[in-house]
Amino acid sequence: MVEIPLSLYRCKISSISLRVAPTQVRCATVGMEVLAVISAVIRIVRSLVLPPAPYVTLTKSGFFSARRESESHNLCSPASSLGGKNSTEKVGFEEERVASRRLKSIVGEGTLTFVSSSEVAANARTLIASLRSQIDEEISTFLGDAGSYIESIGPELVPVSTAMRNFLIDGGKRFRPLLGAIGSMAVTGKSPDRAAVKAVASLEFLHACALIHDDVMDGSDTRRGNPSIHRRFESMHRQAGLSGDSAKYGEASAILLGDLALIWADLILHRSGVGSDRLLSVLPIYDELRVELMAGQYLDVHEQSLASVDADRSLKVAKYKSGKYSIERPLHFGARLSHGSDETLLALSRYGIPIGEAFQLRDDILGVFGDPDETGKPAGDDLREGKRTVLIALAVKGSDEREIFTALGDPHLDQERIERLREVIISSGALAQVEEMISDRAEQAHEALSSTAIADEAKPLLELMAQMALHRSN
C-alpha cells in the first residue's frame, strides 16, 4: 500500500482509509460510497502511478479485454486526467476543488490509501474460497442428516444415500451458491450470514437435480469423470444379478435421485433459519428459477427433435436451460434474501443475462473441443448426442460441407470423424463467431457493473466470477 498525503492535491481528508481500485472506491471505515464525490481527485491520484497511454490498439480477448485495459489506462494517464490531448473530457481544478469540499464534508481530513487492482483481485479470490468452504460445510452437514434419515428407512437405501453424497461432495464448483452469496453482498456490501449461506446452498441441490436428469435425457455415460447416476445404478443392478432390465433400473433410479435432490433443495432452504420475512422475499424468485429451468430443459429436448438447426432458437435454449438459472436467478435469489430492490435486481440482470448466455456458449465449445481430462466427459460428446447448439447452427450455416453434419447424433462416432467435424466447424468460422459472441457478452456484463445499484464490495467478486465462467476448461 502507498500512503499519499492529499495536501499534494489541494484538498484534505480525515484519517480514514479509502481503497481505490480501477472499478471501485469505497470508504473502508464507514462503508460509505464516495465514488461520485471524489472522481476528480481519484483521476489525479491515479495519474501519479500510471504513465500516459497515447496510442491504443483495441482487440477483444475475454472478460478483461484490451479495450477495457486501454480505457482504464487512458483514464488514469496525466494527459487524460488534466484534459490534455488524450482526454475525452475536460477536468479542471475547479471540479477538483468542488469535489474536495464535498468529500471533506463527509470524511474530514487525513490520507488516501491506494490499493492496486491485483490486491483487489487477490482479496476477491480469498473471499470466494472462504464462501465456497462455508457452502461445502453446509452441504456436507445437511447430507449427513438427510442421509441418516434415508438409511433409517431401510438398508436398501444405503446406495441412494452414498450416491447422493458422492455426487454432491466429489466435484462441482459451487458456482450457483457462490453467485447467490454475492447477490446478497450486492445489496448489503457484507458477507452473508450463516443462515444465508445455508439458504444459497439449496441452489447446489437444484443443480444436482438438473444434472442427474440431464444425463438420463442425453444418455451420458459420465459426469465429472465418474459414471453418471443412471449408469452407476445400472452397473449395480447388473453386478448384483438382479432381475429385470439393468438399463431401465438405472434410469428409474436416476429419475428418483434427481427428484430427491429437488426435494432436498427445498428442505435446506426452509430449514436454513433465514426467518419468515427473508424466506417469503426469496420464494417467488426460487419458484421462477425452477420453472425457467424446467422450461429450458424441455426446449433443449424439443430442439433435438427438429430436423433443422437455428442459431436464434439455440440461443433461446442456452438462455433458459443454463444462462438464467446458472447466473441471473442465483444473483436474484441472494439479493432477495437481503431484501434487494427491483432496481438492484435489474442491475444484476444486466450483468447476469449476458454472462449466463456466454457461460452456455463456453459449454457448447467445451462439448466439442474440450479435453476429457478436464471436462470429465468423452471427447466430442455433444457431437455424439447431436446437440443443436449455437456453435453447430453457425457451423452448418457457414460450411460448404453440410453433408458431414448428418453424422451428428451418431453414438458410435469415432475419434477420426470427430476430428473431421471439428475441422469443418473451425473452417466454417463458427468457432470464431462464438468466441466473439462470448467476448461481446462479457463486455456488456462489465459495463453493467458500473451501476450504483450494486454495492461496490460485490463488484470485484462479480468480475472474478465472470472470469471463472468464461475462461474455463470444464
CATH topology of the largest domain: Farnesyl Diphosphate Synthase
Secondary-structure element string: EEEHHHHEHHHHEEHHHHHHHHHHH
Overall tally of domains: 2
- Alpha-beta classification: mainly alpha
Separation, N- and C-terminal Cα atoms: 36 Å
What is the CATH class designation of the largest domain? Mainly Alpha
Mean pLDDT: 79
CATH homologous group name of the largest domain: Farnesyl Diphosphate Synthase
Q: Spatial order of the strands in the main sheet?
A: 1-4-2-3
Helix content: 55-70%
CATH architectural type of the largest domain: Orthogonal Bundle
Biggest sheet: strands, sense, closure? Answer: 4 strands, mixed
Question: How many strands in all?
Answer: 6
Percent of sequence in beta strands: under 5%
Choose one word for the global shape.
globular
**Low-pLDDT regions:** 1-115
Number of helices: 19
Give a short summary of the structure:
This protein has helices spanning 39-47, 66-76, 78-81, 93-107, 117-153, 158-169, 175-188, 194-218, 229-240, 246-270, 276-305, 311-337, 342-369, 372-375, 381-385, 390-398, 415-427, 430-448, 459-470, and strands spanning 2-5, 18-21, 24-27, 111-114, 222-223, 226-227. By secondary structure, it is mainly alpha-helical.
